[in-house]
Design a protein that fits this description.
Helix content: 40-55%
GO cellular component, one term: mediator complex
Keywords: Activator, Nucleus, Transcription, Transcription regulation
Main location: nucleus
CATH architecture: Orthogonal Bundle
Order of helices and strands: EEHHHHHH
Subcellular location: Nucleus
Shape: globular
Distance between the termini: 44 Å
Structural class: mainly alpha
Radius of gyration: 16 Å
Subunit structure: Component of the Mediator complex.
């Protein structure tokens, strides 16, 4: 697994999120922002988190730094681009914890998270 995070993508604690540029280089036809948005939204899926854990991505310090960097999506103006902000940001925050990164390997943890997500989806209309 040779996952490398570009050095310019690692944010320090006090660094502001990247600006959304009007014109940005394209990678395979997509901007870096679009690629990061697509990836961060995938983190809403417990089964995808389990897949990443099974491939040992969560043992890679560069990948963990990238997950920390992606927390900029929790702030305006980036937040508005998330389709499922609740589970996406919740899971991104949970991934900052070593214990969770270990627990997500368990099928029971994945099943519980899927069940909690389905329950929240069914209860949401009544909470409006």
């Amino acid at each position: 697994m040779a996952t490398s995070v570009p050095e310019d993508s690692i944010m320090s604690e006090n660094q502001a999120p990247p600006p959304i540029p009007a014109e940005e280089p394209k990678y395979g036809g997509f901007t870096r922002f679009e690629i990061e948005l697509e990836f961060v939204q995938c983190l809403a899926s417990p089964t995808y988190l389990n897949h990443l854990a099974s491939k040992k991505y969560f043992e890679n310090p560069e990948f963990l730094a990238y997950l920390k960097y992606l927390q900029y999506f929790a702030h305006p103006p980036y937040l508005k681009y998330l389709v499922y902000p609740g589970p996406t940001l919740r899971n991104l925050e949970l991934l900052q914890q070593e214990r969770f990164r270990t627990d997500i390997l368990s099928g029971e943890t994945v099943a519980r998270m899927v069940e909690e997500g389905a329950k929240a989806g069914m209860e949401w209309p009544s909470k409006k």
